[in-house]
Amino acid sequence: MKITVVGTGYVGLVTGACLADMGNHVVCLDVDARKIQVLNEGGIPIHEPGLDEVVRRNAAAGRLQFTTDVPAAVAHGTLQFIAVGTPPDEDGSADLQYVLAAARNIGRLMTDYKLVIDKSTVPVGTADKVKAAIADELAQRGMSLEFSMASNPEFLKEGAAVEDFMRPDRIVVGVEDERAVNLLRAVYAPFQRSREKLVVMDLRSAELTKYAANAMLATRISFMNELALLAERMGADIELVRQGIGSDPRIGYHFLYAGAGYGGSCFPKDVKALIRTSSEEGLDLKVLQAVEDANDAQKMVLVNKVVAKFGNDLWGKRFALWGLAFKPNTDDMREATSRVVVAELLARGASVTVYDPVAMDEARRVFGVEPRIAYASGPMQALEGAEALIIVTEWKEFRSPDFAAVKAALGTPVIFDGRNLYEPALVAEAGLDYQAIGRPQTRRVPR
Ligand SMILES: NC(=O)c1ccc[n+]([C@@H]2O[C@H](COP(=O)([O-])OP(=O)(O)OC[C@H]3O[C@@H](n4cnc5c(N)ncnc54)[C@H](O)[C@@H]3O)[C@@H](O)[C@H]2O)c1
Asked: DSSP assignment, residue 398?
């Protein structure tokens, strides 16, 4: 099949590469000429495990092309996937300018039937706006070409995006006509050989499904984060509570980890957008608002612990920070807790030495020129001259440090762990004050 993917970011590049891997001829379009140049020179603009191999294989085979040429991209694909960004507007609603610009390009330039597929996360009713934009462009040209609209939200996780796309749990498609569903069935057939994974529904239900999924996962995290605060006060261990409730199949283990708050390009923005959509409809969704408020507060939990230990005036103190990406296996720092922690420490006069296995370049871009931020070449190097260690991202390489060496390097032997990486008793045995999330410092039950 001939496929165009509009927007070559995390979602667009993974979608394009994986669809090409199944033998389709894919053209990926982006307005960012630098990104397209990097891809055309054999580079990958993002860190995503396994993606470079799929991209290189299919680019070499001529099935995957990258361009900034809008007319050529519109002419190419019968299927036009829209995978551009939908960042939050000032009021929290999703900014649809990129989606609608992509739609208008299609309407302005198409000369034959197109199936236009929204893959971006967009508020309920956006497919109607996209349809209207395309129809408007066609009307301006005095043309009445046929096109179908579909909503096909993406559920991939950064850090496991290729795997998720290749082996999806489900493929949600919102459609209005048979031609659209038949085309989508055909394009997704290679991804569902073991069982039927297509969940076919109307456009609006598909749009809401994506928000519902992210809001549910964010809710679980905020719920556990609030319980962790209570556990700390009451001397209970949230990690044991997690195991105790996760074993109930009605609850399950996923997304029950207490931590220093969720970040990334999806949860914060999608929860905000859903709150905004509901308030526009005159609905005050209390659970969602609480999920967001709890998360905003949770991003401060590490800073609060640092302040409780060292006081509010941190002048002259340097802190080591392990982990900058919003989660492991990505260099994405959008809405990352590390940004809040660094900003709050700097605001109190502290200096920081940061280390992340892959997000160092991104951190330099995000933080800009700031003499009080130093960039270390490794986790142990980050500890040099540091008063204490703060862990913000649960990268594998942070899981088994030499605690004796950590203790020796720090001015005050304390670890603030925002991701509950260690067994508290083990860290305490090494003579370190271990301040995790919702966990007591010592184990009080025999194993
Ligand atoms: N990142 C994720 O994990 C994830 C997962 C599921 C869904 N989503 C959703 O998918 C969408 C894309 O997210 P992303 O993380 O890939 O964004 P991104 O910012 O990484 O990529 C978006 C790309 O679109 C390009 N673009 C903007 N306007 C364009 C236009 N008119 N024509 C062509 N290209 C254009 C940008 O230059 C950018 O490269 C968002 O709605 C997001 O919510 C993201």
From this structure: G
| 266 is a catalytic site residue | yes
Q: Supply 61's token pair.
A: 């085979």
Rounded to 5 degrees, φ, ψ at 375 are -110, 120
Tokens describing residue 230: 């209570």
Q: Is 331 in the pocket of ligand 1 (CB under 6 A)?
A: no
The H or E element containing residue 273 is: helix 267-280
The angle subtended at Cα 259 by Cα 254 and Cα 264, nearest 5°, is 80
**Which residue in 26, 94, 266, 421 is the catalytic one?**
266
- The 10s digit of each residue's pLDDT in 7-56 is 999 999 999 999 999 999 999 999 999 999 999 999 999 999 999 999 99
Question: Alpha-carbon distance 225 to 232, whole Å?
Answer: 11
> Quick one: CA dihedral 439, 440, 442, 447, positive or negative?
negative
Atom of ligand 1 nearest to the CA of 99: 31
- Ligand 1 centroid from CA 442, angstroms: 45
Q: Is the dihedral of CA 286, 296, 331, 219 positive or negative?
A: negative
User: Cα–Cα distance between 87 and 209 in angstroms, integer?
Assistant: 18
Reference 168, options 148, 152, 179; nearest CA is 152
From the CB of 327, is ligand 1 less than 6 Å away? Answer: no
pTM: 0.93
